[in-house]
Amino acid sequence: MQSLTFQPRLFATITITVLATAPLNVPAVAAITKCIKNGEVTYTDLPCPSDAQTIPFDGHVAPPDDPEAAHQRHLDDQRKLEQIRLENQRLEDRQQREARSAAQYEKQRKEKELMCKKLNTRRKLAQQNQSDYPPAINKRKADQARLQAQLAEDKYAEYCSIE
Fold first, then answer.
1. What is the tens place of the pLDDT at every residue in 62-75?
2. 104 HSE (CA, 13 A, CB side)
3. Within 10 A of 126 (CB to CB), how many other CB atoms are there?
4. Element of type H or E holding 43
5. Distances from the Cα of 139 to the Cα of 40, 50, 145, 146, angstroms
6. Would you say the pTM of this structure is higher than 0.70?
7. Which residues, 6 or more positions from 156, have their beta carbon under 8 angstroms from its beta carbon?
């Protein structure tokens, strides 16, 4: 039985042959297409819309026939960009105002919730105080406790009523 031995030259030759003949996995560059629709030219790496004329792009862009018209288009584009920038700024300002308003509302809601808890505690204490002084034992203190309970109830109802 014959044993196989490693032969570096043979291995190197086979490796080079395999690598040289293997297809390269290089992604293809997307072809750029020139689309003409209603006289307006656009360049894209996607297929043109079905109602547009498709022309393969060779990388050459011809200078405009009318430099003044090209300049006017440039100025129009600048105006449009400025309008978009202003609209974005207005949108951002409105979002900031809404965020501040929401934060202020939440703060007021929490403050009201805390105040209602305090008023409810006062109301319960006043009711308890009222029951501690029955009119038969001490009429003056009973009237005072009843008045405090009524006042606490009124404040709670006024401030904490569901709107």
1. 666 788 888 888 89
2. 6
3. 21
4. strand 40-44
5. 95, 95, 10, 10
6. no
7. 116, 119, 120, 122, 123
